[in-house]
Amino acid sequence: MLLEHGAREDDALLRAAAHGGLGWLVERCLRSDHDVNARSAHGTNALFEAVCNLYLKVDDAQRLAIVRRLLDAGADATVHLDLDHGTALHWAAWGGDPALVAALLDARADPRLATGPSQRQALHALVDHAEKSAAVLGALVARGVDINAPDA
Predict the structure, then answer these.
(1) Do 75 and 113 form a contact (C-beta atoms < 8 A)?
(2) What's the rounded Cα separation, in Å, for the pair 128 and 32?
């Protein structure tokens, strides 16, 4: 529908498709050689957009499938914004999704990376959503994150 209504088939379309949870369009963009790591003016890439759409009604399994597909296509799991918005891993931890956290850690996202003026690590993003923290904490600790690490 986006293409039918004049959306340009460029790297911004890949980011929009990932953000909107449109797996079929993500796949189409990747097959059309879109740059999976192309960044927006705010520094986000398609992977970040797929993870940070937690407020949308995108099914968790669908979001995870898109994230895994982007990672398989070479998405950089370490990209972070210049603003105080962290990385995809920060957002996955903040959103309380242990499967997303595990996928990003398996893709070599750095759990110790502290970003923005607040210098928060992904582990510290958990305090915002304590009810979801146990499962995410388990995913972080299982992959070697030091729970005693101080905030930077």
Answers:
(1) no
(2) 39
CB 104 within 8 A of CB 88: yes
Q: How far apart are CA 75 and CA 3, in angstroms?
A: 23
For the segment 9-15, the average pLDDT, to the nearest whole number, is 80
Return d(Cα 28, Cα 47) in angstroms, integer: 16
**Contact call for residues 89 and 122 (beta carbons, < 8 A):** yes
Structure confidence by residue, pLDDT tens digits, 76-105: 888 776 555 678 887 888 777 889 989 998
Q: Which residues of 59-95 are buried (b: 16+ CB within 10 A; e: fewer)?
A: eeeebbebbbbbbebebbbebbbeeebbbbbbbbbbb
Interhelix angle 98-106/130-142, rounded to 10 degrees, is 30
Instruction: Please tell me the pTM assigned to this model.
Output: 0.75
Whole-number Å distance between alpha carbons of 91 and 99: 12
33: left (phi over 0), alpha (psi -120 to 50) or beta: left
CA–CA dist 107, 101 (Å, integer): 10
